Amino acid sequence: MPRNAAGSSKKATKDPNAPKRPLSAFFLFSQDERPDIKKKTPSMSVGDISKEIGARWKKVSDDVKKRYEQKAAVEKQKYEVRLSEYKKSSGSGSPAKASAKGSAKAAPSKKSPKKPVGKKSAKSKSSDEDNDDDDEEDEDED
DNA sequence: ATCGTGATTGTTAGC
DNA sequence: GCTAACAATCACGAT
């Protein structure tokens, strides 16, 4: 069973950007539940918590699972892009240009923090698979 | 003090 | 098509 000497996270020092694999729905679910479980039982170690999460994972409704799957699907897409960049970096001898991005936005003007209310009222959403994310991430490039 | 292990399931890539 | 390995996480153990 020891698929690998380590539980995971093998030294990623192999590559400079090391495009990590897209997290699976279960992992996304874990990140959400882990802190909650930890709050409930802070004496648990990762192994025990993982077991608990695994049990909960089977208890979550299929709809919930699907929701995480969608998120995972998005991560997967990002992963593909990440691979492209990674490949590009490794493609030519070019040293990745040392981050061409000019720092992380020094002026966080952010967009209008207004939330278009009036639409879906916080409630019922099982059949309606809506994306609650009102503002997904708006990256305005200057 | 620092690194690595351990457990869960899913997904991805190689053969 | 199947197999192998790796993805996050954090307390605890070993060195």
Based on CA atoms alone, the radius of gyration comes out at 20 Å
What is the helical fraction, as a range of percent? 40-55%
Largest sheet: number of strands, sense, barrel closure: none
SSE string:
HHH
- CATH architecture term of the domain at 15-92: Orthogonal Bundle
- Quickly give the structural class: mainly alpha
Give average pLDDT, whole number.
68
Mass-distribution shape: globular
Distance between the termini: 50 Å
The DSSP helix count reads: 3
Beta strand %: under 5%
Q: Which fold name is given in CATH as the topology of the domain at 15-92? A: DNA Binding (I), subunit A
CATH homologous superfamily grouping of the domain at 15-92: High mobility group box domain
Number of strands: 0
CATH class of the domain at 15-92: Mainly Alpha
Give unreliable regions as ranges: 1-5, 91-100
Keywords: DNA-binding, Nucleus
Protein name: HMG box domain-containing protein
Biased composition (Low complexity): 89-110
Subcellular location: Nucleus
